[in-house]
């Protein structure tokens, strides 16, 4: 079986593709106003599929906050993490441009009215997402499991239904860039998503190490 380590571009390319289709799905389902529960389900399905497709190559972070958690966990060297985050952000930007061609951008931009509530919502579900990734995809006791993709996607699905109306439900700094470019959320509010996402990833990584100090 080919080893991704033999190709230094394999991992960032995997992160790019996975993040691209995640953001593309968000734009193409949310902007047209797809009715009912279809948009959150489609987004979770796209994420799950990309995780199973590329998890064996890059770990399928597709999220700067998750990458921060993995750095602290000790599963992602800082140099590699930098390449991941660049790939994630570039993919989100490209996906936003493609969405503009496919479905256009919304006329109304979501403005976050309650900053404290939005910050808390984004932090909590970013933390839940990073924690689930750490425990189902990196813990020794769960090595070789096949449920990690479902578990991770389920957090995003639950978060979208729970707090999407409060914060926009990004839980991901790259997604935040994408939805900002797609004019779904005001650029002035994007700091909320970025601060919450990165800080939650750091807390999740530190808590994992405190809970499982022997799992290195």
Question: Can you describe this structure?
Answer:
The chain is mainly alpha-helical. The chain has one domain: Up-down Bundle (Glycerol uptake facilitator protein). It is built from eight helices and no strands. The chain has helices spanning 10-30, 38-58, 64-73, 78-102, 115-137, 148-167, 173-181, 190-211. It is globular, with a radius of gyration of 16 Å. The two termini are 26 Å apart.
What is the compact description of this entry?
This protein is 70% helix and 0% strand. It has eight helices and no strands.
Outline the secondary-structure elements:
Blueprint: H1 10-30, H2 38-58, H3 64-73, H4 78-102, H5 115-137, H6 148-167, H7 173-181, H8 190-211
Helix pairs in contact: 1-2, 1-4, 1-7, 2-6, 3-4, 3-5, 3-8, 4-7, 5-6, 5-8, 7-8
Superfamily (CATH H level) name: Glycerol uptake facilitator protein
C-alpha-based Rg, rounded:
16 Å
| CATH A-level architecture | Up-down Bundle
What is the CATH fold-level name?
Glycerol uptake facilitator protein
Helix fraction, binned, reads 55-70%
Helix/sheet category: mainly alpha
What's the number of extended β-strand segments? 0
Estimate the global geometry from the Cα principal axes: globular
